[in-house]
Automatic annotation (TrEMBL):
<feature type="transmembrane region" description="Helical">
    <location>
        <begin position="27"/>
        <end position="51"/>
    </location>
</feature>
<keyword id="KW-0472">Membrane</keyword>
<dbReference type="InterPro" id="IPR037185">
    <property type="entry name" value="EmrE-like"/>
</dbReference>
<protein>
    <submittedName>
        <fullName>Multidrug transporter</fullName>
    </submittedName>
</protein>
<dbReference type="InterPro" id="IPR045324">
    <property type="entry name" value="Small_multidrug_res"/>
</dbReference>
<keyword id="KW-0812">Transmembrane</keyword>
<keyword id="KW-0813">Transport</keyword>
<dbReference type="Pfam" id="PF00893">
    <property type="entry name" value="Multi_Drug_Res"/>
</dbReference>
<comment type="similarity">
    <text>Belongs to the drug/metabolite transporter (DMT) superfamily. Small multidrug resistance (SMR) (TC 2.A.7.1) family.</text>
</comment>
<feature type="transmembrane region" description="Helical">
    <location>
        <begin position="58"/>
        <end position="79"/>
    </location>
</feature>
<keyword id="KW-1133">Transmembrane helix</keyword>
<keyword id="KW-1003">Cell membrane</keyword>
<feature type="transmembrane region" description="Helical">
    <location>
        <begin position="85"/>
        <end position="104"/>
    </location>
</feature>
<dbReference type="InterPro" id="IPR000390">
    <property type="entry name" value="Small_drug/metabolite_transptr"/>
</dbReference>
Length: 110
C-alpha cells in the first residue's frame, strides 16, 4: 500500500479516536472507549508502516498538522466548538506549511 495512503488512514483513525475521547467520558462509556482504543491502534499501526519509507520528521509534520486541522473541524461540527480568527489563521499557516513541505521539500521524497 502506498505510504501516503497509509498516512492518510493513520490521520483519519487518529481523528476518529480523538473525537471519541470526549464521548468516552474518561473511559466510563464502553462503545466510545472501544472506538478510542481501536482508532489509536489502527492509527499507530499505519503510522509505523509509513515510517518504513518516509522520514519521521516529514511524517510527523503531516500527521500533526493535518490532525490539528481535522480535529478542529470535527469538534466544530460534533461538539459546537468554534475557533476565533487567530486560531483559524494559525491553522491556515499549518496547512500552508504541510503543503510547502510536500510540494517543495526534497526530504519528503521517498
Amino acid at each position: 500500500m502506498h505510504p501516503y495512503l497509509l498516512l492518510g488512514i493513520a490521520i483519519v483513525a487518529e481523528v476518529i479516536a480523538t473525537s471519541a475521547l470526549r464521548a468516552a467520558e474518561g473511559f466510563a462509556r464502553l462503545v466510545p472507549s472501544i472506538v478510542v482504543v481501536i482508532g489509536y491502534a489502527v492509527a499507530f499501526l499505519c503510522l509505523s508502516l509509513t515510517l518504513k519509507s518516509i522520514p519521521v520528521g516529514i511524517v510527523y509534520a503531516i500527521w500533526s498538522g493535518l490532525g490539528i486541522v481535522l480535529i478542529s473541524v470535527v469538534a466544530y461540527f460534533l461538539y459546537g466548538q468554534s475557533l476565533d480568527l487567530p486560531a483559524i489563521i494559525g491553522m491556515g499557516l499549518i496547512l500552508v506549511g504541510v503543503v510547502v513541505l510536500n510540494l517543495f521539500s526534497k526530504s519528503a521524497v521517498h
